[in-house]
């Protein structure tokens, strides 16, 4: 039981299901004695579900009662009084992590502690060994450089606390291939690897690729409702919520899209992500648009990082062009002529078009205007509230939809070979520079059509637009300077 529990964080109910899953019937029937023995042997840590303390906001104010969920780290704002039959109260429960099972004041939370292990560093220490680890993955020059720097980071120095390494890779750079050498290297040293991503579809898409890349390693895939919830693997692939069931479990934690929902500004998942790494382990963070704090840390030398400024096909990123147009409310059912011309040109060149709008309620009216102006083209709209979203995305992928009007929900993930991107009301506060870069990143992904067209259509020129264009230009310049771009005759 101790061995299986190492690196896990469970409630009592989860413990019992876990023991049952692994066929530990004796431990299951006498679980309190087993837990007590493991605790006394120093192999288990125990806490309540919710911590409470009296705290003053200012030295002169009255002390107030503060609660914090021990599983997800959430504070007072998501705590509600529990109708509790187990204790004499007062008992509160955490709403934030309720989907993982109820955590309340009198719940028991168990953390399996890992045994000390031998230091496995040194098995692949030399640069030559590391280069041979990279060689078999067939990476582009820019990817190779990132992998080399990342491996040097993983091999370097004994750490007291987990290290962090940022890979700032432009959209379409081929992040997945870049992380294979890291996984390979760590597995070689007998260490455990976690890949966490905010999106379930990414988990499902990544699973077969990982299994193909590492055929003789065990891969466990975790998401809400996954069958493998109680299993341990050499490689764990997980959505962010599932991390709440781990405690100092992984030596290498790769976090995809650190800037994407639900990491950004979500203390719960940040707390979970911080807890899953062993004390001498490392984080590799991936992003095309890192949050400002990460950029600052990187520029000031507090965060080791590498930039991958070019796409895998080695063509520069399309630079967005500005289209000055009237605000949408003033269109009166007709497209501004410069926008219409630009759209027509994209249609004429045979592209499929992403048309982004800031708000869900603008999707339908935009679809209507476009249908009227381009009667020969199939125009559809979708948003997070559209029950047919998945079908429409599939249809767009298959080329059955020519123009797809959407909100930022499709800023990531959807890749179509020949696409142009139109961002309407690009001056809206909904679009920060990161969102603009991500949406622009939908164009030119394929090596057969690397020069897609991107337009910021707006009545005003904003800081965010300027910053997005600057960032894209800087990456292109860096790619050119490093010699990553293909030579054009
Ligand atoms: Zn919680
Ligand atoms: Zn209670």
Provide an overview of this structure:
The structure is a single chain. The protein is α/β, with parallel strands linked by helices and 489 residues long. The chain folds into three domains: 2-112, no CATH class; 127-308, 3-Layer(aba) Sandwich (Rossmann fold); 321-468, P-loop containing nucleotide triphosphate hydrolases (Rossmann fold), CATH 3.40.50. Helix content is 32%, strand content 21%. It has 15 helices and 20 strands. The strands form five sheets. A seven-stranded parallel sheet has the order 10-11-9-12-13-8-14, sandwiched between helices. Strand 19, helix 14 and strand 20 form a beta-alpha-beta unit. Helix 5 (127-135) packs across helix 6, helix 6 packs parallel to helix 7 and helix 14 packs across helix 15. The longest helix has 19 residues, at 463-481. The model has no long low-confidence stretch (mean pLDDT 89). Bound molecules: zinc ion (2 copies). Residues 69, 71-72, 74, 94, 96-97, 103 line the site of one zinc ion. The site of one zinc ion has 7 residues, from loops. Residues 156-308 form the Helicase ATP-binding domain. GO terms for molecular function: 3'-5' DNA helicase activity; ATP binding; DNA binding; hydrolase activity. Keywords: ATP-binding, DNA-binding, Helicase, Hydrolase, Nucleotide-binding. InterPro entries: Helicase/UvrB_N, Helicase_ATP-bd, Helicase_C-like, P-loop_NTPase. Residues 338-489 form the Helicase C-terminal domain.
